[in-house]
Amino acid sequence: MALEPGTRVGDYEVLALLGAGGMGQVYSARNIISGRTEAMKVLLPDFASEPELAARFTAEIRTLATLEHPNIAQLRTAFQFDNRLIMIMEFVEGVTLDRRASTGPMPVDEVINYSTQVLAALSYAHSKGVTHRDIKPANIMITSHGLVKLMDFGIAKSTNDLHLTRPGTTMGSVYYMSPEQVRGGTVDARSDIYSFGVTMYEMLTGRRPFQAETAYGVLNAQLTEAPQPPMQVNPALPQELNNIILRAMVKLPDGRFQTADEFRNALRNLQAPKTQAASSQFVPVAVPLPASPTPPPITPTVATANKGHRSLWLGLGAATAIVAMIAAATVLPRMLSTHADQKAPASVTDTNSGAPSTGGMNGATGQPVSGSPNPLTNAIPAGTAPATTTSAATRSDHPPAEQPVNAPAGHPRNPHPTETNAGSQVPAPAPGPSKQEIAQAHERMIQLGAEADSVRAGIQQMRNQQQAQGLDMRGDVLASLSRMNSYMSEADHALSQNDIETAEAEMERAEKEIATLKSFLGR
C-alpha cells in the first residue's frame, strides 16, 4: 500500500511517489529538521514476516554504506519504521537514460561521455567487491549538469554473499540480463559489463538488441542468439565503437572486457584523436619562434650600389679585396698541408683519405696512431674528414700532425666510445612499486577520473547552451579542459607502466585543472 503525501515516516514527510516495483516503493521526502529533500525507499511492507529477505536487504544497506563516489547515488541512512525497512538515499534531479534514449539514437559523443562516467562508478563498486546486477537505462540518471548518477543498487550483492537470493525469483531486468544471470548461476563484475553493453547498444541504435513477445523469448535470445551488429542498425557508428559494444556482449564472460576500467579505456581511446586535436590548438601559442639569423654584412653594399660612380668604384675595390682574401685562404692551407705531409705523413694521410673512421687506427696498418694516449679519443666520424682536415690545417699555431691528439676533450669526434662506456656501466634496476602503492594509485585514478568526467559533462553542456545562443566557451576554460585531458591521459599511461611517481605527478596537475573548472562551473 502506497504512502500518501504528507505522511510522517520518522523525521521525514512524504512528498510524492516516484516509482514502485516488486521490491518496494520510492518516494521523495523532506527531512523536517534540515528541510532537505531526499529519496525514501520503503523495501518491505512487513519486516518480520520475511526474515530471509530482511537479512538480504540489511546486508545490502551495509554494502551501500561503503560506497562513496560522485557517480553513485549516495545512501544517507537507513532505519526501521512501523515494521518496515526504510532507506534514505540522495535525491537526484534529472532525467533517466531510458527517457533520454526514447526519442531515438543518441549522439556518439554524448553516449561515450555518459558511458565513461557509468563505467567509472562500476569500476569503483567492483573494487569494493560489489556487483550491481541490475544495470539498465532506467537506473542511470543524468542531472541537469550532465553528471551521471548510477541508481538503485536494490539487488546489489557483495561478492562475499554470492548465494543470498530470494528463492524462486529472477533478479535483474530481462532485456539487460547477462547469460549467467539467466541461467541463475554465480555472477561477477563481468555480468555488469554485459548489461551495460546492452544499454549502450540501445542508446546508440534506439532499440534493444533482443526483442520477443514474451519474457521467455527474450531470455532465450540472451542465451542463444548473437546480436545484430549495432552499425547495421545505425550505419553512422564507427567500426571501432561497433566492435567495443559487441565485445562487451559476448555470451561467455571470458570473452568480454574483464574489468570496467578496460571497457572504459577502450572508449577513451576512441576519443583520444579528438582530445589530441583539441589540445594541439593551444600548442602553437606556447612554442617560441627561432631567432632570426643575422643578415649578411654585404647587404648594405648591394643596397647602396647605385648611389654614384664613386660608390661603384669603392664597391669594385672591396670586391677585389675579398677575392684576394679568398684566394689567399685557399692557397695557404694547401701550402701548409704540403708542409705537413713532409713532417707527419701517417696522420695527414689517414685524415685526408675520406675513408670511414677506424676508431683511431692507422688506415694502412690497422694499428693505433703513435703518440695517442687513447685510440678511441682520436676517432673521426665517416663523412666529416674533409671539414675536419681543413679546420686543422688552418690552425697554424700548432703542428698539423698533433691536431688529432689535441682535439678538445669536451667534444669527442666519435659517439661510439660513449655507447661502449654506457653499456659497460649499466646501473641495477630500481625496485618497482609495491602492490599497495599500485592499488592506492589506481584508486586515486578512479576517483579523479570520475571527477574529470563530471567536469567534462558540465563544460560540454554549458558550451552547448552558449553555442545555441551564438556564443562559445571562453578560451581559458577550453585551455584548462585540454590540459586536464592531457594530464589524465599521461597519468593513465604511467599507471599502465606501473610508473607510480609519474602518475602521481600528472594526477596532481590534473587535480589543479579540475579545481579550476569546478570553480568556473560554480561547484
Q: Could you walk me through the main structural features you see in this protein, from its secondary elements to its overall organization?
A:
- By secondary structure, this protein is of the alpha+beta class.
- It is 48% helix and 10% strand.
- The strands form 3 sheets. Strands 1-2-3-4-6-5 form a 6-stranded antiparallel β-sheet, covered by helices on one side.
- The protein is globular and about 115 Å long.
- It starts with 7 loop residues before the first strand and ends with a helix.
- 30% of the residues are buried.
Corresponding CATH architecture of the domain at 93-160 and 171-273: Orthogonal Bundle
Helix content: 40-55%
Q: What is the number of strand segments?
A: 11
Question: Any idea of the CATH class of the domain at 93-160 and 171-273?
Answer: Mainly Alpha
Low-confidence parts: 155-172, 275-290, 298-309, 338-424
The whole-angstrom Rg is 37 Å
**Overall pLDDT metric:** 74
SSE sequence, one letter per element: EEEEHEEEHHEEEEHHHHHHHHHHHHHHH
Instruction: Give the termini separation.
Output: 39 Å
User: What is the name of the CATH topology of the domain at 93-160 and 171-273?
Assistant: Transferase(Phosphotransferase), domain 1
- Give me the number of helical elements: 18
Q: Report on the biggest sheet.
A: 6 strands, antiparallel
CATH superfamily of the domain at 93-160 and 171-273: Transferase(Phosphotransferase) domain 1
Shape: globular
Sheet/helix structural class? alpha+beta
Q: What is the beta-strand fraction?
A: 5-15%
**Lateral strand order in the biggest sheet:** 1-2-3-4-6-5
